[in-house]
Amino acid sequence: PVLETEDAWGSVEGPVSIVDLALEQKRIHYPLVEHQFVLCTVLYAIMRFSLKSVKPLSLFDSKGKNAFFKDLTSIQLLPSGDMDPNVLSIRQQFLLKVVSAAVQALCSSQKAKEVSDEELFPFEKGKNWPALAADLAQYLQISEDLVKRHYVCELYSYGMDHLGEE
Predict the structure, then answer these.
(1) InterPro entries of this UniProt entry (predicted)?
(2) Per-residue pLDDT tens for 99-146?
(3) Cα(162)–Cα(164) distance, rounded to whole angstroms?
(4) Element containing residue 138 per DSSP (H, E)
(5) Can you state the percent helix, strand and coil of the chain, rounding each to 5?
């Protein structure tokens, strides 16, 4: 990009400006950043809902695991469209666990009003975990409809028929 500066700034002496430093940085490989984002979201969901017996790296194949330890500016081979059915099964189970835990947390927070979820997790205000799980399904190559159907079934099983109908 071309940045226009005033003439007065041209004669300034001192360290290199932050704009010049930013322009000199290598470009990041955006799919690799998305891949890291998926891992962060998975780890946060495991932490938030205290999911037991979930191994986060088992959700990724060998190419995906190797990509986590590379520089973000490097172009890495990321998982292709052909995935191992076992990995897809583990991913599907994980997403369904997240949805189930989210509905259970919603149900328990509605029953116990003395301490709201927003007080315990103020940075999560307005976070819709089932919708996040459906979005995550795209990245993990799982059917969004499967996740949404499970969400509706969970709502009905917890007696939240009014939300399930929506």
Answers:
(1) RAB3GAP2_C (IPR029257)
(2) 999 999 888 877 666 555 555 554 555 578 899 999 999 999 999 999
(3) 6
(4) helix 129-139
(5) 65, 0, 35
Grouping H, G, I as helix, E, B as strand and the rest as coil, residue 87 is helix
Q: Taking the CA of residue 82 as centre, how many other CA atoms within 13 Å lie in the half-sphere pointing to its CB? A: 0
Q: What's the pLDDT at 21?
A: 85
User: Does pTM top 0.85 for this prediction?
Assistant: no
Which of 84, 80, 82 lies closest to 31 in space, CA to CA?
Answer: 80
- The phi and psi torsions of 4 (rounded to 5 degrees) equal -90, 135
The answer to whether residues 150 and 92 touch, using CB atoms and an 8 Å cutoff, is: no
C-alpha of 117 from chain center: 20
- Asked whether the beta carbons of 41 and 129 are under 8 A apart, the reply is no
Which is nearest to 102 in space by CA: 140, 53, 54, 48?
A: 48
pLDDT digits (tens, 9 = 90+) for 34-44: 999 999 999 99
